[in-house]
Automatic annotation (TrEMBL):
SUPFAM superfamilies: Aldolase
The organism's place on the tree of life at top rank: Bacteria
Name of the protein in its database record: 2-keto-3-deoxy-phosphogalactonate aldolase
Signal peptide limits: none
One MF annotation (Gene Ontology) recorded for this entry: lyase activity
Keyword Zinc-finger on entry: no
Pfam families: Aldolase
Stored InterPro entries: Aldlse_KDPG_KHG, Aldolase_TIM, KDPG/KHG_AS_2
SUBUNIT field: Homotrimer.
């Protein structure tokens, strides 16, 4: 099963990037985001890309401007995730051949993102959107729109979000915090993958 889960590794450092990437890929979580406000994020992303060798989609989060997109494209990153809806970032991402997942909270932002070419919508913070909010939003979005709940969503809620129409999830502190070992991540990734399979399988 292709799991629509993005692991958000805020705070990861380059020396642990390869081991954590391998751990996630082994658990079947093959979308990995390193937020740009992490220590030396481009180095971590480069290490993961080299380690993954095409087995995962790896990119950056907290991408706020087109200059960051250019730097990511230069090292071979594959995905751009943002906390906001910035058409310039979306356009730069698509022009560089990267997947684009901007953050949205309102229908206006959602449609601005889609018109700019976004590949999917990051509902952030998802706990503020809620299940009812997602259901209402899905009623007006194009039916093939991919939506990802990020912020305040964990494996115990996957089934409810699935029923409301979500495509997938971005998981941050539930899968990684600075100081976690590869073993810590492995245990959490296994639980998350299992819950996803139960909800979507």
């Amino acid at each position: 099963m292709k799991r629509e889960i993005i692991a958000i590794l805020r705070g990861i450092e380059p020396h642990e990037a390869r081991a954590i990437a391998d751990t996630l890929i082994s658990a079947g979580i093959t979308r990995i985001e390193v937020p740009l406000n992490s220590p030396d994020p481009l180095n971590s992303i480069a290490q993961m890309l080299d380690q993954a060798k095409g087995r995962a989609v790896i990119g950056a989060g907290t991408v706020l401007d087109a200059q960051d997109v250019a730097r990511l494209a230069a090292i071979g990153a594959q995905m751009v995730v943002s906390p906001d809806c910035n058409p310039e970032v979306i356009a730069a991402s698509k022009s560089a051949g990267l997947l684009s997942y901007p953050g949205v909270l309102t229908p206006t932002e959602a449609f601005v993102a889609l018109r700019a070419g976004a590949d999917g919508l990051k509902l952030f913070p998802a706990f503020k959107v809620g299940l009812d909010g997602l259901s209402a939003l899905k009623a007006v979005l194009p039916p093939d729109t991919k939506t990802y709940a990020v912020g305040g969503v964990g494996p115990d809620g996957f089934a409810d979000w699935r029923k409301a129409g979500i495509t997938g999830f971005g998981i941050g502190t539930g899968i990684y915090k600075p100081g976690f070992t590869a073993g810590d991540v492995a245990a959490r990734a296994a639980d998350i993958a299992s819950a996803y399979d139960a909800a979507f399988g």
